[in-house]
Specification:
about 150 residues, about 40% strand, Nucleoside Triphosphate Pyrophosphohydrolase, 7 strands, about 20% helix, 3 helices, seven-stranded mixed sheet
């Protein structure tokens, strides 16, 4: 058997001192979680395209990635799955309040750092806070560090 991590993308978006997060229920009966707009990479799309798409689908905001924030590996014992997350920071340019959000997403909203820290027990993973801390610490890598090829 070949082991493969789940590749995910995430957007860390700060505006006026608040971060855009989603409140989600990934599966019935597990509870409500807070997360960055994030999700699995789709077949054929670049990592950057995935981050743009996931942000739109989960928040109804158009995301413009400006930097790679970091690459994170996390193993969830609950589901015995390893995630490899590519997190981007950038800005949003447009919001479509009439857009229907992805299944499982209850809402997207802006949260202060204090509100995010107080809700730590509701974070989808430890990567939520780690990405925000890295953003605050000024970690940034050029998007040109990534390349996408198709045969």
């Amino acid at each position: 058997m070949i082991w493969k991590p789940n590749v995910t993308v995430a957007a860390v978006i700060e505006q006026n001192g608040k971060y855009l997060l989603v409140e989600e229920e990934p599966e019935a009966g597990v509870g409500l979680f807070l997360n960055q707009p994030a999700g699995h990479l789709d077949p054929g799309e670049s990592i950057i395209q995935g981050a743009i798409r996931e942000t739109l689908e989960e928040t109804a905001y158009t995301f413009v990635p400006e930097h790679l924030l970091g690459i994170y590996q996390w193993h969830s014992r609950r589901v015995d799955t390893t995630y490899l997350r590519f997190a981007f920071c950038g800005r949003v340019t447009y919001h479509d309040p009439a857009r229907v959000l992805d299944q499982g997403i209850l809402r997207a909203d802006w949260f202060s750092l204090e509100e995010i820290e107080q809700a730590a027990q509701r974070h989808r993973s430890p990567l939520v806070m780690e990405c925000i801390r890295d953003h605050i610490d000024g970690k940034r890598y050029p998007l040109t560090i990534l390349s996408h090829h198709e045969s």
